[in-house]
Amino acid sequence: MKKVILFISTLVLFINSVNAEEYSNWVESLDDSIKYDDVQTETRYRFYKEEIEGEYLISDTLNKYKYNDINDYIYSEFSDWQEVCEGEYANIENKILYPYKKLVVDTNYIQIRGLTKDISFDDIKIYANEEEVSYEIVECDDCTKSYNYITSNEKLILKLDNTYPSMTLSFYIKANSNYPNIIYRIETYYDENFEKIGIAYVANSNLNTFKPDERWLYLAMESDIMYSEVPVVEDTNTVIYPSKNMCRYQEKMTYYYNINKVYYDDNYYTNIDGYIKDTNDYKVYYRYLINDNKEKIEDNYINNNDSINEDKIITENTNDNILSEEEQNIDIMETIISENTNKSENEKKEVPIVNTMSINKQIPIIKYIILIVIILTLIFIFYQNKKYRKKMSLE
C-alpha cells in the first residue's frame, strides 16, 4: 500500500513537471537577467494591399508620378481653332470657318457695385429681348446669398443662364423704399475674370426700370475674333471677316500613377489572407522555457518524499485498525496533491505573461491520461482494502 502511495505522489510530481514545460506567451524581447531554456523565435510582418492613384496627363511635368502606362490613354479636348496646327498631335481636324468680331462683347455676368451707401433690394429681374432670363447669385459678400441688404463696400454678382447680346438686355431693379436716392453702377461682363466689359450705367435707387442706349456704351470693349462653323449675319454690332481654312487638334493623354501601400493595421502577423507581406517591415518574437521552474520542481519532489517517509513511519507504528489506515492514506494523497497543485500555481504566477494576438495555449493530452491513471489507482486501492478488511473480519 505504501508503495502505491509513493507511486501516486510521483505521478502528481510528473504532472507538475509537464506544467513547468509549457511555453510562455510570445514576447518582443528577452530579459538578460533571466536564464532561459529552449528559446523559440517567430518572425512577423506588417501586411498591406496595393492601391493605385493616378490621372491622365499629356506629360508629367511636375514628376508627380512614378509609373506611366503607355497602353492606357485617352484624348484631350479639342484645342481652339487656329490657322496652323504644327506638332505631333494625336488627332487634327481641318474645317472652313467664318471669323467675326463683336463691337460690344456679349454678356454672361452682371455686377451691381459702387454703392454710395448701404442698400436693400426688394426685387431684381433681368430680360433679354423682353423675355425674362434666370440667373444665380455668384457673390454677395455679406448678404447670405440674397440681396436683402448690401453694404457700400460690397458688390452683388449675378450669372445669367446663357450668353446674351448686351444691347438686348433690360433690367428691373427695385430698391427698398427705406433707401432713397442711393447711387450705384450696373455693369455687364463677358467672362468670369471680368476683363471684357459690355455695357455700364450709373443708376439711382429711386428708379426701377433700366433699358440700355448709347449712354451705356462708354466703357464697352470689343470681343476677340471668334470663329463660327456656319456663316454669321452682319449687323451694327458684328464685323464679318473672310472665311478661312482652320484647324484644331487633340492630344494623347496617357495614364500616370503611383502604387500606394494601404496597411491592414499597425500590428505584425505571420499571415493575413488577401494581403501582401512587407518583408522590409517586421519584428522577431520569442517564447521560452525557464530553468528556474525545473529547479523548483526538483525541490518540490524532495520535500514531498520527506513528507512521505514521515507518514510511512507513522503508519507503521499505528496498527489500531485497517479503516483508520485507509483514511490516513487518502489524507496523505490529498495533502500531496493539494501541496503540489498550490506550488504549481505559484510557479505559473512567477512566469511573466505577455498577451499576444496569435497564440492560444493548449493543455497537453498527457495530463488527462495521468489523471485517469490516478483515479483508477485510487479505485483499486479502495477495493483491495475492502477485501482485506472482509478477510480480517472472517478470521
What would you say this structure looks like, in words?
The chain is an alpha+beta fold. Helices cover 27% and strands 35% of the residues. It has helices at residues 2-20, 291-317, 322-350, 365-394, and strands spanning 36-57, 67-75, 91-102, 107-113, 121-128, 131-133, 135-140, 156-164, 169-175, 183-189, 197-204, 209-210, 226-228, 238-240, 244-250, 252-263, 276-290. The protein has a 5-stranded antiparallel beta sheet, with no helix packed on it. A hairpin with a 7-residue loop joins strand 10 (183-189) and strand 11 (197-204). The chain is elongated and about 145 Å long. The two termini are 21 Å apart.
Tell me the distance between the termini: 21 Å
Can you tell me the residue ranges where pLDDT is under 50 for at least 5 consecutive residues? 293-326, 343-363
Query: What spatial order of strands do you see in the largest sheet?
Result: 7-8-4-10-11
Profile the largest sheet: 5 strands, antiparallel
Overall pLDDT? 80
Oligomer: single chain
Overall, the morphology is elongated
Number of helical regions: 4
Order of helices and strands: HEEEEEEEEEEEEEEEEEHHH
DSSP summary, beta strand count: 17
Strand fraction equals 35-45%
